[in-house]
Amino acid sequence: MDVLNSEELKARLSYNIKRLRKNMKFTQEQLAEKAGLSKDTIQSIENCRMWPSDKTILLICDSLESDASRLFLPHENSTTAEDALYKDLQNTFASRVRNLLNKSIDEIISENQE
User: Fold this and answer.
1) Closest CA relative to residue 8, chosen from 40, 51, 69, 62
2) Can you point out the beta strands (E) in 1-114?
3) CB contact set of 88 (below 8 Å; sequence gap of 6+)
């Protein structure tokens, strides 16, 4: 399994902060204000020029109403073996959840028909 290097990890963090910020319809300035950071800090993180401190990551997470782990998830176009494994696990989990839900629904329907 490939191990992410620091640049790949920084790119993943940057991508996810920007994605979550846009999902919340925040500008960089709005996120910075909400997190108590400067707009330059947000820009530097999103452009992979700066690695944030733990405290900064937590401030950003709080402002984006997100868990820190979401900032390190692979994005759709990622190609590392680790990311491929993660996506396979996600798909397997989703498939198993769907199967369990369908089975539960079938059981409820059959109980109500009796």
Assistant:
1) 51
2) none
3) none
